[in-house]
Amino acid sequence: MLDVYACGNTATRAMKSHMPQRKPLKKTVAGNGLTKRVFPCPHFPFLLTLAVLLGVGTLNIITASGFSVQPFQSFKPGNVLVLVADDFGVDKVGLYNIGTNPPKTPNLDALAQKGMVFRNAYSNPMCCPTRATIQTGRYSFRTGIGWIIQAEPAYAMQLSEVAIPEMLDNGNSGYAHAAFGKWHLGNGTVGGALAPNNAGYSYYAGSLANITNYFSWNKTTNGVTALTTKYATTDTVDEALAWINTQTKSWFAYVAFNAPHKPYHAPPSNLHSVDLTNPTTILQYSAMVEAMDTEIGRLLMGLERMGALKNTTIIFMGDNGTPTEVIQPPLNPLHSKTTLYEGGINVPFIVQSPYISRPGVESKAFVGTVDVFATVAQIAGVNLTNTLPPGTKIDSISLIPYLEKPSTPSIRPMNFAEKFDPNGSTNGLIYHPPTPNPSTSSVKAARNEKYKLIWDLITQKEEFYDLESDPFEQQNLLAGGSLLPNSSEQAAYTQLKQQIISLVSS
């Protein structure tokens, strides 16, 4: 028997009372009738000069690839379920065939068999920047979130950003929406306990940031926080199932697991098969992954019993690469979470959808967590050009063309990731913990089908790799000096550098 319970009344969305100290450009009216001020995007001063030199597009809504976002006119609306795993790189999913002894993930494997696996999916190297890209469809240099959110307002997702539920409401989609699990996009200064509701979600239940004990943690429900002793991964699925079971119209659900983020521990024994008689960090991590996979299976089974699965697009992803302490060969521990190497930003990305024409196939298209926004908009029939504030620039590209036709070439000419600390830190190209430093670091990474450039726009440090022959980024092609003139490497290096400049100055 499927256990579900009523969520209770949906709280009225709170008024956005803590606005950033920037002059508003205009006012817009959200779907619930609230008036919302729109503020300029954060940016680095040097980008202004680049923008003047290179020029910017004139389309109202502009993607990173230069394509305008268009609604899918003949689309039948359906539900959308977004699943996010915390600290989960491609090396920990067996179907990617990269890591050593990956955890058992039968439900993710089944999802892939019925759906589509994206091989070249990028996140940011840390959770908060990635979560912001999911919610806004905008890269970090636009949202200002390039590092872990702390107490300072500069780290939080500003209330002027249009998140997915606001897009759905403003676009008159008629969709219900809710968020569950880890939020980690607000703080006491911006949003507080109502941060998810202030971002537009009609219902939220979960942890506002990281938790220190999966069996005893502070759960926030629509702004009210109370201690709970229910295992966090199980609670997230219970809440999602309960809410979905009450819906009578199309819905969007954002389900963000705390797992398998530390603290590493032994989950309830009924959720995994790992022998923890002599527990190690890696074994505990694997057990946490199995437990998450088990609960994902329960969630999908619940959707099937409700009759909702066949009309639901499911998007599963990691929020960043695997942490240093649990990453395994052939990946380099210094190329893990927090870095812009593949081990830090190449994440599992699996989609199951009624719009998939050929289940069980793979795509090498350049996609990422930023593409959830446009995909949801297209499924919901929202015209972003008419919905977002004039001049809004997004970087999201709908996944629908790839689902309908797997052979579709990559719409985005490159994949992109970045990291920066608004308050400055020594976040160079090699892995080390952040330490205070008066100078800032703004590191960008871009790759095409063969080559990858990692470039700090402030310090001018660079690394350049041939991913085709060197997938684990062991040989920096710039280490021996300049590239050969008129070589394919030189041409690719120049092109990627120009593409980064063009993007961040747009």
Question: Care to describe what's here?
Answer:
The protein has 506 residues and is an alpha/beta fold. It folds into 2 domains: 326 residues, 3-Layer(aba) Sandwich (Alkaline Phosphatase, subunit A); 89 residues, Arylsulfatase, C-terminal domain (2-Layer Sandwich), CATH 3.30.1120. The protein is 24% helix and 17% strand. The strands form 4 sheets. It has a 10-stranded mixed β-sheet with strand order 9-8-7-6-10-3-11-12-4-13, with helices on both faces. Helix 6 links the parallel strand 6 and strand 7. The termini are far apart. The N terminus is likely disordered.
Biggest sheet statistics: 10 strands, mixed
Strand fraction? 15-25%
Give the radius of gyration: 21 Å
Secondary structure tally, helices: 13
CATH A-level architecture of the largest domain: 3-Layer(aba) Sandwich
| Cα separation of the termini | 53 Å
Number of domains: 2
Q: What is the CATH level 1 assignment of the largest domain?
A: Alpha Beta
> Helicity range of the residues?
10-25%
> Which secondary-structure class do the elements indicate?
alpha/beta
Largest sheet strand order: 9-8-7-6-10-3-11-12-4-13
Sum up the structure in keywords.
single chain; 506 residues; Alkaline Phosphatase, subunit A; Arylsulfatase, C-terminal domain; ten-stranded mixed beta sheet; four-stranded antiparallel beta sheet; globular; disordered N terminus
Set down the secondary structure blueprint.
Layout: E1 26-29, E2 35-38, H1 45-54, E3 79-85, H2 106-114, E4 116-118, E5 121-122, H3 127-136, H4 140-143, H5 164-170, E6 176-181, H6 195-198, E7 203-206, E8 217-221, E9 224-228, H7 232-245, E10 251-256, H8 281-306, E11 312-318, H9 342-345, E12 349-352, E13 361-363, E14 367-368, H10 372-380, H11 384-387, H12 400-404, E15 415-420, E16 442-447, E17 451-456, E18 462-466, H13 488-504
Parallel strand pairs: 3-10, 3-11, 4-13, 5-14, 6-7, 6-10
Antiparallel strand pairs: 1-2, 4-12, 7-8, 8-9, 11-12, 15-16, 16-17, 17-18
Helix pairs in contact: 7-8
